[in-house]
Amino acid sequence: DKYSDLTEDELAQKSLAEAEKAGMETAWDRLQDQKPQCGFGETGVCCNRCAMGPCQADPFEEGPERGVCGADADLIVARNLLADITAGAAAHSDHGREVAEIFQAAAQDETGGSYGIKDEDRLAELADIFDLGGKDLTREETAKKLAQRILSEFGTHRDGLALTERAPAETREIWDELGITPDSIGGDLVEAMHRTHMGVGAEPANMLLHGLKIALGDGWGGSMIATELGDVMFGTPEINQSSMNLGVIDEDKVNVIVHGHNSVLSEMVVQAAESEGLQNMAEERGAEGIKVVGLCCTGNEILMRRGIPMAGNMLNQELVLATGAVEAAVIDYQCIFPSLVESADCYHTEIITTSHKSKIPGAVHLEFAPESAESTAREIVKRAIENFSERSSNRVNIPGEPQPVTAGFSLQSITEALGGSLDPLIEAIKTGDIRGAVGIVGCNNPKIKQDKGHIELAKELLQEDILLVETGCAAVASGKEGLLSPKASELAGPGLRPVLESLEMPPVLHMGACVDCSRILKLAAALAREIGVGIHQLPLAGAAPEWYAQKAVAIGSYFVASGVYTVLGPPPKIFGSSEVVDLLSSGLEEAVGANFAVEPEPKAAAKLIIDHIESQREELGI
Ligand code: BF8
Known about the structure:
Keywords: 4Fe-4S, Iron, Iron-sulfur, Metal-binding, Nickel, Oxidoreductase. The chain is α/β, with parallel strands linked by helices. It has 4 domains: 3-55, no CATH class; 73-234, Substrate Binding Domain Of Dnak, Chain:A, Domain 2 (Up-down Bundle), CATH 1.20.1270; 246-395, Rossmann fold, CATH 3.40.50.2030; 409-620, Rossmann fold (3-Layer(aba) Sandwich).
């Protein structure tokens, strides 16, 4: 039927039918309304940066070749791309800074006990990297000093980012030679926006090198800080069992969705919902309890650390409302459709915004602040309970049963599962039982059948004995398909399968939210160090088969700048400039030893990746 053309997720197909019945518009409808999309925009040659414009440079030499300021297609494309990387890196880094600010408030005992230190080993690891000096410091002193040091990296100093030291020397040398070693997270981002202003940068290659620098500041800075401090405060993920898809919504319970990205909110909502008082209140109102369910990356955060079930990925955000059984959807920021309040109007669901950065007209706003986090979280859950009586039972339609998943793969939990060191993994890579590893990451994009890009690429690679690590919406696509279960190891090739079976591991390791792509960097860096090479020499690759977000552009850029060959599904908006296309393919290969490729068709993308991995192996002599 028409729904099965839109999404691979069978429960989503059923919910799409429900949504249509309810008169709820979805992203797929809106994409249809937008067609045909603007060719100038698609190829990146439209510039709307200043009041002399908007301008377009015609890549086909039929119209004007320069904007009013004199920028040609190459510059317009490079400037737009730099602006996209900046927006993405800023989104991750602002999130990271918020986590750091809460960590500081906790260290200074200003959160009324809402936040604290759960993983002391990780705190010690960070104290070491940030060279805080002195084993005599108390835990509290260490935390305070660390918070200060980390926050200074967001703006007030330009001495580099401590966490980049995790990268192997061979990789850091490449950055130094190119001048793309980040100086400061905030400073580099401000400079990036400066460079995109009219009359500043006019050399595409120079602009794009700065793009790599801010991307590295995201991966090895802003995002990594979000991951690390999240682990310190809420615990480093351990392997756990949970479930995924729209079927996790529980008809008998008060359902609270947490949607967005920041663990400092979702963790508190989970804690509040666990409290006996609120559970009792829910029962008094006729429910069997409260169920917190995640969506998108904040869902990934609480799945990783607490085994909380997930309703789905980005394109499931409207469909989950069509179950008719969601009392409240609590959001912070990023990847939240601005039309979500209107979608919710078709049902009793209340949309609750929590950040002054991310308000939606018509939503209830309860500002989340460190000093009142616990009470705000309780208030949110209370509102959901009160809303339970507004649910119309005849409109409840939960489309199927949840899929079991295994999640919680951090560098620590992977190392532990391997018996205390990465050696068995390295050995299996050397013998060729495992040919290499690929990080499949990123979003959904309605231009691609939901989840199909992720799932098909994953299956192709697994049968070639390639181990997969995933984050973000890609990991959720795999979860819904059953690939996050040890059972799915039967899809792996003859080398990989016995390795997985002996460890009872799934063939796809869920490593967390998009900011946790930093876990993939950390794993890659650890492997490279063990083997004694740069990251660009490893048999690794990255893929973003259904990406939509500027954040994904930043992630792709730091993967490549770190030495990881990366294949994109949807084409980036660069095809109006042959210079930029050349720079991102051959130019980057020369500069950082890795490049981008674009291939929306999963089998063809798999072929590119397999060929790359085999040639890396050959060069390593394994
Ligand atoms: O940071 S994968 S659609 S939810 S941007 Fe967004 Fe993309 Fe999903 Fe999380 Ni990431």
